[in-house]
Amino acid sequence: MSFVGDHEAVRSPSFEYNEFVPYKSLDLIPGPKTNNFPAKCFVYDNLIHNIGYTEKQSSGVQISMSQEITISHNTIYDVPRAGINISEGTWGGHMIEYNDVFNTVLETGDHGSFNSWGRDRFWHPDRRTMDSLAAAHPELILLDAVKTTTLRFNRFRCDHGWDIDLDDGSSNYEIYNNLCLNGGIKLREGFFRIVYNNIMINNSFHPHVWFKDSRDVFMHNIVSTPYAPIRVPYYGNFINHNAFRDSASLVRAQRNKTDLNSVFGNPKFIDPANGNYQVAEGSPALKCGFINFEMDKFGVVSPKLKAMAKKIALPAAIVITEQKGNEITEFIVFNPN
Question: Coil, helix or strand for 193?
């Protein structure tokens, strides 16, 4: 399913990674020029799989130059690239919720079960130039991504990339209450991303090449492995109150002046073997502000499609006990197979 607007509606468009419009030539009016684009559309209760036989750069649902598209209760799997993809920030306001997306990025790379990129009017392929431009003209940041895009209550699993991959300047996102089963969450460049109350099994948080004043927030999340930053001298507005599996991962994060009030320990998932990753009473995650969310609403809802849909493979929990002197630590790891 593809939602693609008219490029004539875009102010100062750049059509590929290496293109940019010089600042002096930019149209500085927020939002679209015309209303010739999809808006307020719904993608609901669809089973999408085994697509991309001839075009590998495809996705189950594609959004480009559109606004306020709702993608809800769909099951998407066995695809060569992303299950759901949003290209460009033009013009945001999308709601991505209650989807079950797995077995993705099977024939490509550098992508995720959910994938996006921005490359909006602040974009420049040279990072130093873009840093200077965004610092001097922060008003450019939300000229295209004028409305917040929300990801919530989804289950993602990508074994060949990231579960959630916000790439190349993706901005103005709110991401919460998502279950990520293998690939973690990546935020590259971009601004105004609020990521909270998500569970990352087998993986962690991947901040990549952030801006000095990104305004990014990462809090109340459960992570399984150490953060994996790449070229991140600045850590956004607030990276704190998260739950780590082990003390070493927490200490490593705190060296970067983040997570000073975060916790570590066995998260005490209630029934991971059957897909319930809610945490039990006494879980350290509850101490850092994590709140349980429902685990039985992902994917299609009609009985016919439920019966036809392939089941997601759940990682099996393994508990490892390590003793140092009188101190005993339990580590939960998951077999990705």
Answer: strand
